Amino acid sequence: MTDMTMTTSERRATKRGPDLQGFFLRYGLFLLLVLVILLFAWLRPSFISAGNINDMARSASIAALMFLGLTWIIAAGEIDVSFMSVAALANMVVAGLVVSGHGWAIACVAGLLVGIVFGFANGLLVAIFRLPALVITIATGGLAGSIAAAIGLGTSISLSSTGFIGTLLHVNFGVLPLLTVVVALLYGAAWFVQERLTFGHYLYALEQNRSAVIEAGVPVNRLLLMLYILSGVVSSLSGILLTADLSSGQPYIGTSYFIDGLTAVLLGGMALKFGKPNVIGTVTAVLLLAALLSGAALLGWTDAQRQIVRGVLLLCGVAVVVWARRKTRAHI
């Protein structure tokens, strides 16, 4: 009995020894972010100028807000490919209402309702009626995108004033926008919910063994419905912010966020919880993408070259998540 206990202790001690592979698997994404920032700062000192940092932080904050709900949906083993179209529709609804003479307050409420309606529709069809999430969100995303294009008759809507949203976007704390501080606090709260509450355990258990979670009495359908509504709400909020940030409504703006969203969530799965999408990983991947795109622009890279980088990162994220999930299921 003593020998067995000692053997177990020795094994644990061995596991506590230096594990470079484990270290890089958990923290490699953070190290890559630091490396990219240092590299671009060396190649182009203007990369770390106050103005460029402010611009990167603002764009990264809007993107991170949009991808928050998507992170938890993918972590739960589902998918939502309508998030960027919902953002585009909210963007066009706000721009259309402002141009037609309605105030920014009413326009923002209408934009937020867009996210609630589409999020509820996705959740209802996927969670309650058990229809395939990919098919459903492709359909709802296509509907949202079509309505967005119809509002502007296929073209953008220019705004002469960005209202109180534009004012808030340009409030800064030092070099950082107020928006960045707010999104950081939101992600901090999301991390607490994910790591310290039973919600996080249910979330990851759903992907691993959904039947066991249902048998444990967890209201799975209600949980998934909430996740899809959350995704719709944060997507619409991002669309509202983009209206003020761009001073216009852009019906096809969601296209540029599709690859970025999947890349951020899947690549973020490489951080901390290997193979499991998580909020800290997502925000780190968003910062990495923002740094890469900003640095690439300063170096004069073409749009095609930037898309190649995005594609490579997405492939890395998909490969890591799929491999990790197969390994986890093999041990169940």
Automatic annotation (TrEMBL):
Checking Pfam families in the record gives:
BPD_transp_2 (PF02653)
UniProt main location, coarse: membrane
Membrane topology classification: Multi-pass membrane protein
Q: Where are the transmembrane segments?
A: 24-44, 56-74, 81-98, 104-126, 133-153, 173-193, 223-242, 254-272, 279-301, 307-324
| InterPro entries the record matches | ABC_transp_permease (IPR001851)
Q: Where in the cell is it found?
A: Cell membrane
Q: Which UniProt keywords apply?
A: Cell membrane, Membrane, Transmembrane, Transmembrane helix
- The protein's name is Ribose transport system permease protein
